[in-house]
Amino acid sequence: MFSKEVYVGRRSELRSRMKDGIGLFPGNAEAPMNYPANPYRFRQDSDFLYFFGHDLPGFTGLVDFDSGEEILFGNDFDMDDIVWMGPQPTVRELALRCGITDTAPLSELRKYIDRALSENRRIHFLPPYRGDTRIMLASLLKENPISMKTLPSVELIKAVVSLRSVKDELEISEIEKAVDIAREMHTTAMKMCRPGVKEQEIAGAIEGIALSMGAGTSFPVILSMDGQTLHNHSHDNILETGRMMVTDAGAETNLHYASDITRTTPVGGRFSTLQKEIYEIVLKANIEAINASRPGVSNLDIHLLACRILAGGLKELGLMKGDIDEAVALGAHALFMPHGIGHMLGLDVHDMEGLGENFVGYNDEIRRSEQFGLAFLRFALPYVPGHVFTIEPGCYFIPELIESWKAEGKFSDFISYGKLEKYMSIGGIRIEDNILITEEGHKVLGSPIPKTVREIEELCSRT
Ligand code: GLY
Ligand code: MN
Question: Which of 281, 341, 345, 461 has a CB 3.0–4.6 Å from the CB of 303, allowing a cystine?
Answer without folding.
Answer: 341
